[in-house]
Prior knowledge:
The chain is an alpha/beta fold and 234 residues long. It has helices at 42-53, 67-70, 73-79, 89-95, 181-184, 189-200, 219-233; strands at residues 2-6, 9-14, 21-27, 31-35, 56-62, 84-88, 123-125, 130-131, 134-138, 147-151, 156-158, 163-164, 170-171, 206-208, 215-216. Strands 1-2-3-4-5-6-7 form a 7-stranded mixed beta sheet. A hairpin with a 6-residue loop joins β14 (206-208) and β15. α6 packs antiparallel against α7 (219-233).
Amino acid sequence: MNISKYKNIYQLTFARYLFPINCFVIERENDLVVIDMGLKNFNKEIVKLQRSTGKNVSMLLLTHAHSDHVNGTNTFRKYFKNAEIGISKRESYLLNGDMRLLKDESQNKIRGGFSRGIIHTDFTFEEGDVFDSIQVINTPGHTPGSVSFYLPANRSIIVGDAFQTKGRPAVSGDLNITFPFPALATWDKKTALNSAYKIKELHASSLFCGHGHFIIHPEKEINQAIKHLEKKLL
């Protein structure tokens, strides 16, 4: 397990050289907020962060329902009994096994792996919702209900699989042969590209992804990743 930090965001990474899976912990004034929980192993490390910071975990927010982002959720509940767990309203259908597409959505097949067990959440959220210092932004494409979490105080954004940085920075759906899995699990590439535009317009000072290292001042990498997918689609 590797732990790195930028400002008030801890990135916990499992198997960073082979198949990196990231979990994030945001340290706020009075508590800790966890973003994504792909593996139960993350929980023991988060307990250590509670001890070192003197702050308790209050919440787990999920970017999307793929198993490598939610499989540790039930174990999380055992460790942090007072914390609440949330996922976007649209993505909650996928988490519960309902793969039907809405009329206004691309009718491409939903891809990727989903947990076989039941994962209980406490609440859902939508774009525009704010959890104190954390803003919810809809960034569909990888899945229909994928979201990102923006921290305006330091202009950091946690994007789930809307981008990846393992291998090279890439928009979800853009096949990177050195780490192809996010692309292979993407539902709709054009929707993902539109979400990349949306993320670009935030002019974030740091970019955190579900797979790979975080990037400080990521404007160049975001632009290059967008142009790479544009050439394939436009």
